[in-house]
Amino acid sequence: MCKMTGEHNGKHLKKDNKLRSGRSTVTSFVRFVNRTHRFVDIVWLNYEGARVKYKTLQPGQFVDVNTFVGHPWIFRDSDTGDHLVVQLREVFEMTTGWTPNDGVPPWRKVINITIPVYTLKDRSLQVIRSFVSRDRIPQLDIPKELKEELTVMFEVSRRRKLTDNPDSPIAHSSQDVN
Q: How many Cβ atoms from other residues are within 10 Å of residue 2's Cβ?
């Protein structure tokens, strides 16, 4: 019987607390479906824990992926880098899969990518970020702590764009999931 029955929040951590893919020969067949109105980057965390952008999905689009048990995937808004989720979790990882010894043909598990429930504060900062350029943050009539958080959001987005550039030295370094 086919053993593809579940998945969990990835736990393949090494001493440095980096989430990464583990070695596996058990194949899992998934279909990632973008159920948001955003462009979504599908990102595989490789054996060193570095992010490898697999594909960008348009709203409503899907991609079939042949992956392995123990390989974590994360999902980000292509424009902002905001975290997206599957089954209410930021990290997706199949824990069971298929081998030729199963005796039945493999099947593809549908995985829906959705928007998490953001806190009111986080969603408000996202909206402000979409209307204000980074250089205008100091002029906003909001608390200093929120200005600092907006600045961090812009910096994270800038760094993410650098890591998406294959010519950038940052693109070849390990990254934390958060």
A: 14
Beta bridge partners of residue 68, listed in sequence order: 27
pLDDT tens, position by position, 51-81:
999 999 999 999 999 999 999 999 999 999 9
Instruction: Output the pTM of the full model.
Output: 0.76
**Spatial distance between the Cα atoms of 91 and 49, rounded to a whole number of angstroms:** 13
3-class state of residue 84 by DSSP: coil
Strand-strand pairing, 7-8 and 27-34: unpaired
Among residues 85, 80, 163, which one has the least CA distance to residue 129?
Answer: 80
Q: Which amino acid is at 108?
A: R
* Distance between CA atoms of residues 80 and 114, nearest Å: 15
In contact, 153 and 125? CB cutoff 8 Å: yes
Sequence-ordered strand ranges (E) for 35-147: 40-45, 51-57, 62-68, 73-77, 85-86, 91-94, 109-114
